[in-house]
Amino acid sequence: MCVALPGLAISTDQGQLTGQGLDGIYRAGRRVLSRCQIRVAGREPLAVQARMTGADCVRFVGTLRSSPQAGPDPDVVVERTRHADGTERITLRSAAVRPLRLPVEVALATDLADLGAIACGNTGPELPASVHDSGLRWSSARGNSTVTADPPPTDALASAGLLRWEFALSPGDSASIELRVRPDGAGPVRAAGRAATSPLAPARAAGDDPRVEALLRTSVDDLQALLLRDPAHPSDTHLAAGVPWRCGLAPAEALAAARMALPLGTRLAAGTLRTLARAQLRGKGTQSGMIPGPRRDAGLYLPPGCTGTEATLLFPALLAEARRWGLPASETEELLPAAERCLTWLRTTVGDGTYLPDPQPGGPVRCETQAHAHRAALLGADLLDACGRPGGAELRDWAGALRTAFRAEFWIDDLGGGRPTAARAPDGRPVPYLGATAVHLLDTGLLGGGEQAPGLLDKVQTEQLARLLGGPAMDSGWGLCGLSTKEAGHNPFGHRSGAVRVHETAIAVSGLATADYEKEASGLLRGVLAAAEAFGHRLPDMYAGERRTEGSAPLPHPAACRPAATAAAAGVLVLTTLAGIRPDAPAGTVTLRPMRSAPLGEIVLRGLRVAGAPFSVRVSRLGLAMVEEAAGGLQLRA
């Protein structure tokens, strides 16, 4: 999958676009080309390699023998370089000892189907083509598409959808064809991530483990490829949820990814926050202040959850942490009213109660929702105090009452040492399964001076949760299972009932390391790093939670997005967790709390952003961190 949204190209490793399945080149969710098949001298090249050369580009290499009498060695190399913007360059290279005359045919077609129809198998037939300028054109009520070729073909057959050339190649010579596909009147794809104004720093990693360099490079490239502009406010960018199924804005995922990507700078966070502030609900109803979001499957034991609730609670937390990473005061002030409306919604919805309930009547009280709400209250209070706004004390008081109640009412004692309950039913009964959503209890958020906010669990409960997350029932060896293997209904491919979700695994690694449970954090870190290697360092948002065994590989999930915003940002989070970077840009300080066990040996992170300036850090094999580059005046805090 080549991605530079709104452009997208999906191919098999054979290189030929056959029109089957998801094959094709897309623009803004519509397939503008479904078939692009090459024949040279009447034969298809034999595919020998397919390799991503960037998030938006793939290179295919094939070979063929120009005649049956040429012997077993191929004497023609066919290279195809396909880009997400709809450009493909086909190059023929001759290794023959005699001059060759090579006829080349390219068969083209499209159905102009949208991605949703293709996913459901409702694509309709290929459309008839017409000869257009130096290529072919297709048109229907759904739109139109044109392929132009350089050099122009010597022959174009609309009825067969064929373009033909004939090349004369001397020994060692080469010839190229460039195809460009796009809707009529559309210019080249202007991918936000490929612009000079990209909001993400081009960070790079190096170290004893060569996988860290590949993971961070690929994660940053994928985040760049998933960037979208707000059409009404093109200076504001945010992340699409993932390719191919979710190429639009998903508020909770966009905020979560922007938060994990804060080490790459605050501009993505600012653009995401401004975009969602414009979508925030206003008025006097019970939903006033909410950021709307779709419902999300929650697995076997709970009804679907509201991602709007999660997004509304993430908004003030992201703004507060972005300020610590260096978001300018003027932008913080601009976004503060929207954050205040989120916090007002939180206080109003809780009312005189202790817990934040589900928005639907009769819904459960979810464990992870309380974790999100508790973090939003503490970080929101910190933000309000720093900006001279009222309401911080009230939020802290409620958060304190929530901690007291939660530790008593959301903890189940058992012979294994106890565990948090996933939710409480409307009648107060616990829903006692153990799933990966419990990791949000460890994700407390960053306050001033490099301090972490207090968590909902006490020290003994946190230690027990760490032991459970690091145990074989939750740690698959490739990452954290969505549901413990000891629970009834565990399904390694279940979206929320067993599959490994990379975002939650990264949150677990970060939270466990912050709480000083480095053994458990290191196990999960090594597992997700091994999975990343198996996936070519481009992590999907989820994959099967099958047990890792000698010589095995993680099983892809058929409904996964790859690349995905939260998975790519998770790569940034797990690697920066090794250095434990905790900035306080308003105070002009940064604190380093590296993993003392240095589970990956020495690692160097370069080109990060703290306080708006490049920041580089080295962690030694002894677990000691040293700043190598930082903003002038930024002080290292002990």
From TrEMBL:
Domain of life, source organism: Bacteria
SUPFAM superfamilies: Six-hairpin glycosidases (SSF48208)
Signal peptide range: none
Gene3D superfamilies: 1.50.10.10
Gene Ontology BP, a term: carbohydrate metabolic process
Domain Putative glycogen debranching enzyme N-terminal: start-end pairs: 9-180
Cited InterPro entries: 6-hairpin_glycosidase_sf, 6hp_glycosidase-like_sf, GDE_N_bis
Pfam families: GDE_N_bis (PF14742)
Protein name, UniProt field: Glycogen debranching protein
Species the sequence originates in: Streptomyces ferrugineus
